[in-house]
Design brief:
mainly alpha; 0% strand
Length: 372
Amino acid sequence: MTFLVLMLIDMKQLMGLLGYPDFLFSKLQELFLAVHKIFLIQIPDKSIYSYLTTSVFSVIVFLCGNTLINYFKYNNQVEELKKILSSLIDNQVSSIQLIQYELIQIRLTYRIISRQQQAETEIKKNIVRNFWSKIARIKRTIVKVEKDNLYEKLLIDRKLLKAEPSIMVDDYFYTLRQLLINLETLVESDLPDSSKEKDFYSREVDLIYDILDRDITDLGVLMCQAEICKIVLLENKIFNIVWKENKENKKNKESLVNSFYKLISPNTSEFESPKREMIPPDYLEKIDNFINERCRKQKSKYCDFSELIQSTRTVILVIQHLTERLWFVQIPISTRANISRLPLPILENLSKALLYFNNLHDLENWLSTNQK
């Protein structure tokens, strides 16, 4: 009906009402005259040009209106999907933090249990029971995360996401799946069984520590990935240009930088977790690049941030090269902790000196000499 009414209104009057300049009407008339000459259209009355222009303009308005409506509908669907994913990731972060905390407590408890004889007193028995209850809580949390993970069910809707959010979110959920598999293996196979107390004393302690440290560190990296996903999903570039950035995204950026800073800071004790030398190098670079691009303001609060990144890269490379140089001999946790705490200049010296090491004894001698 609107289309028919617009066709009956004189185009010049319509454009005047809409605030368009007069020269635009004359240009449109010239366009249709040119079309008339090309196709040799015989039009008896020139006044028909006005109605023809009106009808074409009406079609354009109709199509543009339809396009805008579809765009806003699509945009609303995308925003709803982003909110669902952000809420899902936020809930998972709480569970991930709980698992990481329990693993750190298990690591401390295991150190105490492994150094004592078979539990005879009530206090020692309580420590062992507490150990098993922590494992049970981790199992329940893993099951909860797997059950509440709706990401696979959003397969069709996920196609609405643009390239960057889609890549970030896919990477996070892939890492989460792999880590859940590792954690299930840890609690089901690697850690002692509750029915066999002697397992505490027969298993190699350093091996258990290594597994725990790796999973605790991977959980720390995963939490950084989760914060990146939330930032990308809640980010609205057009909104940020016109208005200021929303408070929730600022909070997420501060949380990301703070979590990553703790992750790359050297431990003061070998029993602290996570371990920066166990951070996967590719994730270290991805998170660092993202912070440099999106979180410069939050990063500027930490004056030694760049130095810590560089020393973490060097620590990771030194550990890798040492492992290869010593024919994949297991480097003790205390030795790795000493390397991780070295200042950057000494780390660079170690990266050159390790070419001449033949065994662990050479490494320990070098560390004892250069740490003083």
